[in-house]
User: Fold these one by one.
Assistant:
Number 1:
Amino acid sequence: MLILQIDYQNTASPASISLDERDKRELAVFFRSLRLEYQGGEVVVDFSASGNPKQTALFGFWHSEADGAWSVGARSALAFDLPPPRGRKLRLTLEAHCFEEAFPVCDIKVATSSGHRGEATIGGFGKIEMILKKPFFCSYSRLVTGDMHAVAQCRNVSSRKKVPRVSIILLNRDKPLMTRVAAVAAASSKPSLPFEILCADNGSSAENLAILRQAEAGMRLLELSENKGFGEANNLAAAEARGEFLLFLNNDAFLQPGWVDEMLKCFQIQPDCGAVGPVLRWPDGGLQEAGCGLQPDGYPVRHGRGDPNFSVKTLKRYQSVDYVSGACLMMRRMDFLEIGGFDPIYSPAYYEDTDLCMRLRVMGKATYLASRAECYHIENATSHGVESAQWATRQSEKNRLIFLERWGKILK
């Protein structure tokens, strides 16, 4: 698999644009097409083939599961299901459009998981040709999505009899490239203890399962016959897991080096630790949330989100919070099974993680944010369309009312 990452730099200040916060993060450049030529072949992606390119490629490549593409804030990425290209040079041709009323000129830096690098300036509309070069003596710099050259490490015991200390659980449904990228990031995050990657597949097509089986990072695959949703699929995977600790990880979340160990340390330092999660950041580094609080009406308070004055550095190493996101959540397998796992009443999604942390609280266990640990999270990579976003809103509100009926008195 080859990953192409684009970083946007030297654009106009978003503060000078009369747009809401969501648009400020997304509205800058869109691509109509991309051609990557390498020794022995080429690959072409037409982002505008399915309709309005503004809907498929805002600020780069919009969420496109078929191509393993995403774009959040000032960073985009695209995964190709092909081996690392041979040769020192790649030719990249982009057909792009800069929204002149917001960003008349945009500088971009391109990096690939094969070590090729290049940069260019986008302005107006047209084709940009770039030569991406790999130095003769290059130390591969890690992309946000992981290091393809460090996935085959001896501590990944997914396919061996050796018992892991940590089971990293990924869910997949017809997004094999995204899941493979998340597995690469997890495997190259360099946990110091033996670990396994266990992927529960929620009824993907045979074609997508075949792509998933080609994963670069070793993993065990649990094939479910149908879509079980977030909670039930994770429960089934937890029952199959071999590790003392479970790390639930979304397939659009990318672990960074050293942070698995940092989360594990919380259980040693904080005897009452029931669950722990990292600081979540957007792939461009912007703060997504640093743990979460709960209001009396059951709505979450995502600490630091959209707050330019919030500083993670002022937090304790392990900060007590009401709950941490299920996008990246670690707990003891014994505790998870004892409280019955994620409650299926919230199926297919939303509020399972919140309810889980509340049940831990009743057990006398606390939930902590590991403020020195970070995980890059795309967020809602599976619900980017208008219809799916509306469904997500309705489903979340439905489950909030269920959660409030159960925990309302305690929240007050």
Number 2:
Amino acid sequence: MQDLGTLPNGRGGIAYGVSPDGSVVVGLAYDYAGRSIAFRWTAAGGMQSLGTLGGDRSEAWDVSANGVVVGRARNVVSWRAFRWTAAEGMQDIASPIGGDGVAYGISPDGSVVVGEHNGRAFLWTASSRLRELGRLPGGNWSEAWDVTDGSVVVGRATNAAGQWRAVRWTASGGIEDLNTTYASLLTNGSVLQEARAISPDGRYIVGRGYNAATNRNEAFLLDTRCTLVGDVNGDEKVDDADLLIVLFNFGRQCRQ
């Protein structure tokens, strides 16, 4: 464990995100007045303030493999979702839309940002700008927490009863409640409440849920790949390709 230090005249902080290679850490650091300032830390440069959008507070939530940082920062009236690069500094990615927002996650290449704005999950790219991802039927809130290359997004949303549910968005399927999609994997009464992160290939999802068997909230790891007997090549179907692999390898043995 390594102490990342503080900003000048600071008094501690929280690290929220790290780059895939571990070289860049982002989060928030507190000053002595209790105000939070987004930081970016590297071994060579130490803790660096990312500033604000004109207000007095900011928070960094995630960082991409190429060093792009996302989070939220205050302007003179509200919290705004931001994207920061070394070349351009901090940019309000929800401008000129009013209201509060936060960017929670970013794709590995730094081109896709996800988060929440005015109670709706969003996906942002430089070309399409901020796009809402929708809510569950009857629900009034949704948040996007992580994203693959832009094709799969995970987060949480309220249902018609006002309960938090772990959700996933895809371009083809829209929003889906993971409790419905993977109901067969859950014990009676157990609930997946929020999906916090997804692996770059979209296969694994992690988050928090309620385990009815232990009567407590617990972390979960969900493997979304369907496993079929006979699916030799792992494409989630059993077909001629699997049969050919078996035939071409028939009679072979592993050698020690």
Number 3:
Amino acid sequence: MKLATFLTLILSAAALQGQTDYSKVEIKTTKMSANFYMLEALGPMGDVGGTMGVLAGPDGILMVDANFVQMGDKLVAAVHKISNAPIRFLLNTHVHGDHTGGNEALAKAGAVIMARDELRFRLAHPAPAANGTPGAPAPAMALPLVTYRGQVTFHMNGEDAEAIPILAAHTDGDTLVRFPNNDIIMTGDFFRSLGYPNIDLANGGSLKGMLEGLGNTIGMAGPKTKIIPGHGEIVDRAGLTAHRDMILAIRDKIAPLVQQGKTVEDVIAAKPTAEFDARVPTAATTSERFIRQVYTELKASK
């Protein structure tokens, strides 16, 4: 499949951002420790795509996520500014194009792409768009070369970085990446501090799996752990716990309405997120989506 067809898939993931001029988007690098860096794509309107991580050192570079396809070359250049060491591994936290789009550019730069079995399958066999348009498979070089089902540990640069599968949460191919010596956890999009959660039902996500994944992450975090979400500001364990508790509270408002036979429009009108809207960034554009996702799962299990 030609790169042009893959662009269609990636651009559909950027729909919420409108028409982005990628020539004006740059990579911001934030040094978080002696050998760990957070990367963000920033344009005139703010963040573009998902957050990325780089573990650098004499053993080479381990990367987490790869932003949009349009940012591939800029991402490779930004990594080389951090270190001249070879880019050895790229971990994808989930299938969405704002986290996997740069895969091909990084593979060409020498990275071995790694991800869950489910993620590779969905890149190769994408779900149709909401309007039924068939998805465009990723180019061969953009597909993970190595896949896994259980935990994988990278012993690099004084770290024991852990890629830990999170089952059926944001999608069915999520991975949490933990850097214990740096006390950093990257969650991908099963935790976002920007907006309400996004349970991608079409790609195998679930409310149950998201809650379990958040609970597991809380359990492995210490009081000073830096938790880097797929989108939004870094939080600590207390912030992550508050996020999980918010989801539980909203679920518990929606569940009895589902039991009463209310329609999804009835539930939206009941405003089950109202008490949280003022403190959730982009609540106005993400609350209805989240309510619909929770309603769909609870109704299916009724």
Number 4:
Amino acid sequence: MTIKTGFDPDKFVQEAGDAIIAANSEGLIIFWNKAAERIFGYMTSEVLSHSLDLIIPERLRKRHWEGYQQVMQSGQTHYGSEVLRVPAVHKDGRHLSIAFTVTLLFSDDAHIHAIAAIIRDETARWDEERALRQRAAGIEAKNS
């Protein structure tokens, strides 16, 4: 039995407040929602079929791709239920702090077709925490 709800999953994914991005087995972007446009500054038309390197800081790319390939080969990731917090890069070059989880998308023949991530921009929170840490360190230095 199908219940008619008026719910449109495609619209939900496009309109979600968090970025939803998917990349194929080579790391090329195959899906980019409106929140991804807002967070990273790239329009969907600018990123489709381009590498995730657009949003990965250069210093972290080697480590990212090693992990990406390991997931592609093993078919397993522990970031599906764990939130990963990492730096990212906006189109204009500014640094972002993002938090995300991933899900593996399998093809009918049980091979990984893509990895999808749900991403939240936590830059403001990160900046606030850094300022608090610096302030606490200053207070400790004065009291030493």
